[in-house]
Amino acid sequence: MGDDNKDILRYATEYAEQNIDLYELLGVDALTPKEDVHRAWRKRSLMYHPDKAGAKFDAAKWELFEHARDVLADPNARAAYDQAMKAKLLRKQEREAMDKERKKFADDLEARENAVKRQQQEKQQRDSEAMQKERERLAELNRMREEETRRREEAAQEMEDIAEAKRRLKEKKEEKARRKQAKEALKGTAVGGRPSGPANGVVIVPGNYVVDAGDVKKKYWELVCDKLVAVQAVRNLQKAQVATEELQQAERNVQEVRRRIHEAELKYERETSAH
């Protein structure tokens, strides 16, 4: 094989590696015969000829047209060029197919990851909504319990208030009855009244008559003064509306003094009768 043929084969390989489409450059296709290749070269390269381009002559472009003509006009070089271009195209298609497969795999992986994320987000949303509903349910249950407790407390307080009102009313009635009883018992001490206890003053006793008054001895007139003081004390307590126990004690003091006076009168009457 001559050096020219070696160079043409080298050009064919280099242009194929550089992905330079010689067919497109000359305006032919893979089925164009050798003769038509030369005609196409003459037609396409005319504008690049040194005589035509003049100062705009592009040596590299002119050389490319000549090499394209030589490669496509030589069967061996043309076959080597076509085979190299096909191999390059095949590798490109394989890379594209591989890229598509990788892209599809990546897209599928991303789609699955997005689906998982959506499921997780939806689950979190459902869990959050369920938790919120449970909080609301518990809050409502607690509110109802508090409301029921409040109603029970109000009902219990109302019952206590009613019981307290009844107790006070009963105490007032009892107090009124005791006051009425005390007034009846003291009628005898009023002007024109009649004593309900011992009939003091029925027997005329000298004022200096000495009688036993518990641990001490008192004169009769002193006992009468004690009775007047005790009766006045009851009247003062009735006006002041003091506690029932205090009033009852004052009334018992009146009865006690009247009892002593009555005993003194009985004792004096027995002594005078014996004489």
Automatic annotation (TrEMBL):
Cell compartments where the protein resides: Cytoplasm; Nucleus
Keywords: Chaperone, Coiled coil, Cytoplasm, Nucleus
Biased composition (Basic and acidic residues): 113-155, 163-186
Family annotation (Pfam families): DnaJ
Entry GO terms, CC: cytoplasm; spliceosomal complex
Chain segments carrying region Disordered: 113-204
Keyword Nucleus: yes
Superkingdom: Eukaryota
PANTHER family: DNAJ HOMOLOG SUBFAMILY C MEMBER 17
Protein name: J domain-containing protein
Native organism: Stachybotrys elegans
Lineage: Eukaryota, Fungi, Dikarya, Ascomycota, Pezizomycotina
